[in-house]
Amino acid sequence: MPRKPFSYQITQLDPAKDHEQISFLLSCHVLPWDLERALEFALFRTFAIPSISGLLAQTGEFQHRPRKRYDDTELILFEILEHGMNSLRGKRAIRRMNSMHGRFEISNDDFLYVLSTFIFEPIRWLEKYAYRPMTELEKQGVFKNYLELGRRMNLKDVPQTLEEFERFNLDYEAKHFQYAASNRLIADKTIDLLLGFYLPKWLFGVGRPFVFALLDEPLRVALGIRKVASWRKVLMKAGLRVHAIFHQISSEPTEPVLGTRRKRPTYPEGYQIEELGTFPFKSSQD
């Protein structure tokens, strides 16, 4: 068996009709580690928009229950990715997501921007740090998949081509990236959470500058983070390059890497989709 059978399988698919399968194969077989890191850094970009970070700070979830907030976001997205939007679990996850979002006043453009980061940050991360970039077919598959998710989120005026959506993404950042105290608050809580996956708490001070090293200049300024020494950037890029080399010579996992199967301290006994999120679920009979 070839070392990269799932990458080959994607080449035989049509992004217009097979976008869910393309997204699943990329995230669960081909590049699971890189795409999860990319989506984590996509979150940082949303924190640089004061209207988004301000709402996140207002809910108190990131300050008081950052791990639950992180797990809930991941699990809802993994439920949709792993089971499909038309599956019962996928529909329940989308319904839960829409129900949570509907409790807050969130502009359509902020929704569109967040959606755009989920498309373009993975593309950019793979270009910079992975053993290979996304192919054009893969980019179109990921784009079509999020386009369909945006439709089910009832978003308006969604750009209909990859080029138009990237232009919206870049223009929105140029216009709305601006420092606010809530930006830094939410970013700090998230960085500490992510460092906790790898380091004991007493080493967070050592680890934070290396996370900062992966932030581009406009993002760093908008989050109120100090400049990082060049050697830290070089070291981080070298470490990611070593990871990419090992990934390139390794076989793709035959069993899918599923986020919904991962053990999470937030839900030691498992979870129900309707208990994910920032407020209690009430059935129509309550």
TrEMBL record:
Keywords: Oxidoreductase. It is an enzyme of class 1 (oxidoreductase). The keyword Oxidoreductase applies. It comes from Algoriphagus aquatilis. This is Oxygenase MpaB family protein. One of its GO terms (molecular function) is oxidoreductase activity. Its EC number is 1.-.-.-. It holds the Pfam family MPAB_Lcp_cat. The lineage of its organism: Bacteria, Pseudomonadati, Bacteroidota, Cytophagia, Cytophagales. Transmembrane segments: none annotated. It comes from the Bacteria. Residues 57-233 form the ER-bound oxygenase mpaB/mpaB'/Rubber oxygenase catalytic domain.
